[in-house]
Amino acid sequence: MKELLLKYGCNPNQKPAKLAMKDGSDLPIEVLNGAPGYINFLDALNSWQLVKELAAATGIPAAASFKHVSPAGVALGLPLSETEKQMYFVDEAQELTPIACAYIRARGADRLCSYGDWVALSHTCDAATASYLKGEVSDGVIAPDFTAEAVEILKTKKGGKYNVVKIDPAYQPDPIEKRDLFGITLQQGHNECVIDESLLENIVSENKELSQEAKHDLILAMITLKYTQSNSVCYVKGGQTIGVGAGQQSRIHCTRLAGNKADIWWLRQHPQVLALPFKEGIRRPDRDNAIDLYISDEWEDLLADGVWQQTFTECPAPLTPEMKKEWGKKLSGVSCGSDAFFPFGDNVERAVKSGVQYIAEPGGSIRDDHVIECCNKHGVVLAFTGLRLFLH
After folding, report:
1. Is 13 a catalytic residue?
2. To the nearest whole number, what is the mean pLDDT of the chain?
């Protein structure tokens, strides 16, 4: 197939729209089901690059949950703990293959933002992954291959219109990429920078103890940032993103946004949250919304008389600010990556409040000494990578 006509571009008034190779060659993708749109392909092609690179860098299957051309969550296919199974709504009978675990963890990083996501899988989509995906609200999935059973399961989503896209894993883009903007063509080299452990060798903090798990998490953070709209900051723990701050004009706002998301991810694991008495038949999105409201400052809106009865079998006790603070102190071992240097130490101060103990950023600020000083004050390991990862 040399071109694919699309219904419209980013918005219904932007016509005509199509997908094609500039040299007229065959497209490296095949639509197995559905009719993906312009934005779908923006998410699909960006997310595919991320998971392909992450799996190659770590040797572990990877998955991403994308919304509006940035990842809501990214994860490696590591085994799920019992707590993770509970907080990600995994049924006891659910088969858990590595690629299924990767997507479940990627989706679980920020379930609210992953609502209606585009999914990317580094390895073949199997029946286990398709079965879990069937129960989630999602727009489509891209993978290098699909089992026949997985395709049949996915065809049952969205009245048979769920988007399923297969991509040639051997496809390599032209080293020069072009973009038309306002009738003007911009050109640059494709971002082929290699992200590996060599970027973590320049540790400038007093604490230089960087575990192998932390190295993996920092690599995951940096590869995620490579495909996240700038400015961006990413928090990672245990092989999955737990907070991504994207597209903010101020770096500290990125750090706060990602940190707030990490805090929410951690609060979802509070025993009181895991024990919420949901009524039978409550849909996953409604559970996600209820949990998000329950752990927020607007919890009274959820627990008001006449409201809680719609969601719970009994009115739960509120999660007080003191309880949240005490629980938050238990979060540790978090890694943090930034796509450009931290201009001030306030980014470090905010990051450590969400359990950050490892940071990777390019360095090069005139206030690097202040950032290093803040890391030393908190015992944080700081690596200057020398690599900026802007994406626009």
Report:
1. no
2. 96
Are residue 54 and residue 125 in the same domain, yes or no?
A: yes
Catalytic, 208? Answer no
Q: Do 159 and 232 share a domain, yes or no?
A: no
Q: Are residues 310 and 343 both part of a single domain?
A: no
Q: Is 207 a catalytic site residue? A: no
| pLDDT tens per residue, range 88-136 | 999 988 999 999 999 999 999 999 999 999 999 999 999 999 999 999 9
Residues 59 and 110 in one domain: yes
Summarised one tens digit per residue, pLDDT across range 211-260 is 999 999 999 999 999 999 999 999 999 999 999 999 999 999 999 999 99
C-alpha closest to that of 385 among 346, 367, 359, 366: 359
Catalytic residue among 52, 67, 216, 237: 67
Pick the catalytic residue: 46, 163, 231, 347?
231
CATH code of residue 44: 3.40.140.20
Q: Residue 268: which residues within 8 A CB-CB, separation 6 or more?
A: 87, 274, 291, 295
Q: Is 333 left (phi over 0), alpha (psi -120 to 50) or beta?
A: left
Structural domain span for residue 104: 3-167
> Annotated catalytic, 68?
yes
